[in-house]
Each structure stands twice: as C-alpha cells, then as structure tokens.
From TrEMBL:
Modified sites of kind N6-(pyridoxal phosphate)lysine: K215
Reaction equation(s) it catalyzes: L-histidinol phosphate + 2-oxoglutarate = 3-(imidazol-4-yl)-2-oxopropyl phosphate + L-glutamate
Subunit relationships: Homodimer.
Ranges of residues in domain Aminotransferase class I/classII large: 38-352
High-level lineage: Bacteria, Pseudomonadati, Pseudomonadota, Gammaproteobacteria, Lysobacterales
Source organism of the structure: Agrilutibacter solisilvae
Entry-linked InterPro entries: Aminotransferase_I/II_large (IPR004839), HisP_aminotrans (IPR005861), PyrdxlP-dep_Trfase (IPR015424), PyrdxlP-dep_Trfase_major (IPR015421), PyrdxlP-dep_Trfase_small (IPR015422)
Official protein name in the record: Histidinol-phosphate aminotransferase
CDD domains, alphabetized: AAT_like
GO biological process, one term: L-histidine biosynthetic process
Coiled coil ranges: none
Length: 374
C-alpha cells in the first residue's frame, strides 16, 4: 500500500500553488514574477531581488548527505516546526482526525494540532528509575483504536532527554503500516551521538524524521529544518508548503554551516557540549536540594528540586535564565537547564550552592546514572 493512502482524501489531487518557479523554462529575460528589474540599494540586498528557489538543490543535497538520505526524501523548511505543521495539514482533515503524543514532550505538536483542529490523544511517557520511557505497546494500541494518522515521538526527548530505541520505533511503524505515520523528532540527536531513525526509512515508508540546524549547528536564527521521509510523502508535503519557504540569506548561511570545516567545528562543539552535560549532571547529583537529575542525551538537563521556586530565583538573581517546567504535569518541581559554556555552567553550579572549582575537578563520569533522592 502506498504512503499516499494516508494523505487527506480531499488533497489527493491538490497541486498546490503554481509559482513563477514551477514552470521550467529557458530564458534570459525573466519577466514572470513581478520582481524588481533593478536590485535594491540597501547594503547587502543586491542578491535578493529575485524570489528564491523553493528547494535549492545545493542545500537539499548538502542536507541529504548530512542526514544520510536521498535528495528526494528530504524537504527543507522554516525549522522543523514547519514540518510538524505540514505533516498535520497534509495528513489530517481540518477539524477532524487524531494524533498521538507522549507527554511530557515538545509543545509545538499540541500547538499545531490545536490550530488545525486535530484531536490529540496522550500516552504519557513512563517516568521510571531509568528516566522517561515510551510505552510503545500502548502507543500502538491507542493509535490503532483512535485511527491516528500521526504519532509524534521525540528522541532525545524534550524535556526528558531520553533516547528512544530504534527497534521499538521500527516495530511501532510496522504495526501502524497503512494507518499512520510515526514522526521521530530528532532535534537533539547529534548530542546523543547515536544512530538516527533515518536508517529505518528504507524498510518503513511510514516514518518521518525531523532534523534541524537550530541546535547542534548553532543556526536557530536562520530557521532551517527538515523532514526526511518517503519521497512520495515529501512531494505531497511540498505541495502544502508556502511557495518560497526559504529566505535566500538563510540558505546561504545554511550552506556555509554545512561546509566541511564548519561541520568539523560543529562536531567539536557537540563533543564539548556532551562533556559539559555529563560534568554538570555529575555535579548536580552531588548537590543538596536536588531531587533528581534525569540522564540526558541532549544539550540540556531536566532537574527536579526540593525547592524549585528558590532554585529558579537564585539562578535569576545570578542573571541566569532557565526554563521553568513547573506547569507541566509530573514536573511540578522541575527546571530545564540548557548546557552553556564551561563558565556559564560553573555559574549555574555556583548559584545553586556548589563550589564551582570543586565541581570542575570532579572526574567526569562516562555513564552518569540517574540518582533518585525522592
Ligand atoms: C527546538 C526544537 C525543535 C524546533 O526546531 P526548529 O528547527 O528550530 O523549528 C523541534 N523539536 C524539538 C523537540 C525541539 O526542542
């Protein structure tokens, strides 16, 4: 069965907007898009008088090489946030349909579903001694019962930091074959130094993987992310996307960030972030007033405090802003702290009462375990 059977029925013959870039013509005088014939005069705008390529082939193939897929299996857009929205719009009829999430998780799945009128069913992650774990059997059963077109998984999880096992993701996709698409949001996978679900695409055409340049590649301001999936699904998503989704300056920045020297620097930065994460995790475990530090495979730590308000205020008093998670069910005592530079991380430890000097000489633990104090 083709993946196209999962598309909204009313969109199966939808061609999307035909932009000036849709027709492939040869020409030397281009008067088909109502662009200005002269460049603008403001500094830096000279190269921008034309509409950009909707999917610049150079960027697409650089991203496809980076993520290990074919060019036609990848759609670039305005961050992976856009991909979440596109998947919902292409697969769920507006005001109907259902998607499964596993809380606590990234908030955009619920925001996009709400805007589109898609009903959400939650199969909460199980908060056990090893961290947050996905109950894949229940996810599969609920998705089947509710005829969910989409299941949103996040690996490593935000905010939990937990990595989902690829064999379980593959088995879920197998069970939902013909009924739904398993979306694996890998915004932080670089920090897990682990295999991507992109490797599962050949065997499972109902998996869609979200990747982004926003986190490990230090390019959040450029808004470049992508969805990697079956080529037919990608083509359908493209028809639902804005005509010119990628601003030219952002494309150029992304290409610069994907050159080999920049990629080497990215790998270095990721290594440092992972070292710092593990150092901070170990240091937190030794602090008093901390209930739990979840083992993280991402570039943040989820920490539960005896006195979360007090911790939040002490950090703020030191000028450090962290993410307050206390409104999230099950995380009423938690803060999420992004990994900063070594000095910034020391400032976090100092504000929370540790001696930063001591914390830094503590040997980094290769495999820090969760410590449950409460
Ligand atoms: C940050 C984040 C994103 C957003 O990525 P963009 O590419 O910047 O839109 C997606 N998913 C998760 C889980 C995130 O934490």
């Amino acid at each position: 069965m083709s993946i196209l059977s999962l598309l909204r029925e009313d969109l199966r013959d939808f061609g999307g907007y035909r932009s000036a870039r849709s027709d492939e013509c040869e020409g030397s005088i281009w008067l088909n898009a109502n662009e200005s014939p002269q460049p603008g005069t403001a500094e830096g705008t000279q190269g921008l008088r034309r509409y950009p390529d909707p999917q610049p082939p150079g960027l697409r193939s650089a991203l496809a090489r980076l993520y290990g897929c074919r060019d036609d299996q990848l759609l670039a857009g305005r961050g992976s946030d856009e991909a979440i929205d596109l998947l919902l719009r292409a697969l769920c009829p507006p005001g109907a349909g259902c998607a499964v999430i596993t809380t606590p998780t990234f908030g955009m799945y619920a925001v996009c579903a709400r805007l589109h009128g898609t009903r959400l069913v939650d199969v909460p992650l199980v908060d056990g001694p090893g961290g947050h774990a996905c109950d894949f059997d229940t996810v599969a059963a609920v998705a089947q019962r509710e005829q969910a077109r989409l299941v949103f998984l996040c690996s490593p999880g935000n905010p939990g930091g937990n990595l989902l096992p690829l064999p379980a993701i593959a088995a879920l996709a197998q069970r939902l074959r013909g009924t739904g698409v398993v979306v694996v949001d890998e915004a932080y996978i670089e920090f897990a130094q682990s295999d991507s679900a992109v490797a599962l695409l050949d065997a499972h055409h109902n998996i869609a993987v979200l990747r982004t340049l926003s986190k490990a590649h230090a390019l959040a301001g450029a808004r470049i992310g992508c969805v990697v999936a079956d080529a037919m699904l990608i083509a359908a998503l493209r028809r639902c996307q804005a005509p010119y989704p990628l601003p030219q300056p952002c494309v150029e920045m992304a290409l610069a960030a994907l050159e080999s020297s920049a990629r080497a620097a990215t790998r270095e930065r990721v290594e440092r972030a992972v070292e710092e994460r593990d150092r901070l995790q170990a240091a937190f475990t030794a602090l008093t007033g901390i209930r739990r530090v979840y083992r993280s495979r991402a570039n943040f730590l989820l920490v539960r405090f005896e006195q979360a308000q007090d911790a939040y205020e002490r950090l703020l008093a030191a000028g450090i802003v962290v993410r307050d998670m206390r409104s999230v069910p099950g995380l009423g005592d938690a803060l999420r702290i992004s990994i900063g530079t070594p000095d910034q991380n020391d400032a976090v430890l100092a504000a929370l009462g540790a001696s930063a000097g001591l914390a830094r000489v503590a040997p980094p633990q290769a495999d820090p375990r969760d410590r449950v104090l409460a």
